[in-house]
């Protein structure tokens, strides 16, 4: 039986390319796609999927915000992250949600096909995923909640806006923001943005 695959990415060229790979190399033609966290949650209620391939940042926010929900409601759903975000930053956070398959968008095509095959055949990911691009990445010390808030801080949202978006108290947001500055050893937003750019942490 063919796996039921859902792609969640807000770049149409990425979705088209992935669908083409799945069609050409695996003969999978029934692949659905969504562009936002909101659409993703709706689509999961509409149809029973076996595999989800998603980016960390979608058009309406970070998927770290919805992963606890996805895991709770769909514990058997197999998830692979396909992202430009550095694995050393998000890998630890994603493992908390049982996500071991991490495919960087910069991976060469042959390797991408090989890793997709392991994922779709429900095999464990290979442990030799190559050297980390930035082994001492200062953002890799951040916890899932800190990464969620980092996304909005980098986008330029203030404490009140982040508090309303994530539905958490303002003093919680302030505390987490301070922890982000401490852990990344940055003194202000400008320094934080420069550091994020340097380490390829997109937002």
Task: Describe the SSE topology.
Layout: E1 5-8, H1 12-26, E2 31-34, H2 37-46, E3 51-54, E4 57-58, E5 61-62, H3 67-73, E6 78-83, H4 87-95, E7 101-104, H5 109-120, H6 144-154, H7 159-166, H8 170-184, H9 189-198
Parallel strand pairs: 1-2, 1-3, 3-6, 6-7
Antiparallel strand pairs: 4-5
Could you tell me the CATH topology label of the largest domain.
Rossmann fold
What is the CA–CA distance across the termini? 37 Å
Radius of gyration: 17 Å
Q: Quick check: average pLDDT?
A: 91
Number of domains in the coordinates? 2
Can you list the strand order of the major beta sheet? 2-1-3-6-7
Q: Output the number of helix runs.
A: 9
Identify the CATH class of the largest domain: Alpha Beta
Number of β-strand runs? 7
CATH homologous superfamily of the largest domain, by name? Response regulator
Helicity range: 40-55%
Major sheet:
5 strands, parallel
**Helix-and-strand structural type:** alpha/beta
Low-confidence stretches: none
What's the CATH architecture name of the largest domain? Answer: 3-Layer(aba) Sandwich
Q: Strand-and-helix sequence, N→C? A: EHEHEEEHEHEHHHHH
């Amino acid at each position: 039986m063919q796996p039921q695959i859902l792609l969640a990415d807000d770049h149409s060229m990425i979705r088209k390319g992935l669908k083409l790979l799945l069609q050409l190399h695996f003969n999978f033609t029934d692949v659905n796609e969504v562009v936002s966290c909101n659409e993703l949650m709706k689509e999961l209620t509409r149809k029973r999927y076996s595999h989800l391939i998603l980016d960390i940042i979608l058009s309406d926010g970070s998927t770290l915000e919805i992963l606890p929900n996805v895991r709770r409601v769909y514990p058997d759903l197999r998830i692979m992250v396909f992202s430009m975000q550095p694995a050393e930053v998000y890998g630890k956070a994603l493992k908390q949600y049982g996500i071991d398959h991490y495919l960087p968008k910069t991976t060469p095509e042959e390797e991408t096909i090989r890793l997709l095959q392991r994922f779709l055949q429900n095999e464990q990911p290979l442990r030799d995923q190559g050297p980390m691009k930035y082994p001492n990445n200062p953002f890799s010390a951040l916890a899932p909640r800190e990464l969620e808030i980092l996304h909005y801080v980098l986008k330029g949202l203030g404490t009140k806006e982040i508090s309303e978006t994530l539905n958490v108290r303002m003093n919680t947001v302030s505390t987490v923001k301070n922890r982000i500055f401490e852990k990344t050893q940055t003194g202000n937003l400008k320094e934080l943005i420069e550091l994020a750019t340097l380490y390829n942490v997109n937002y």
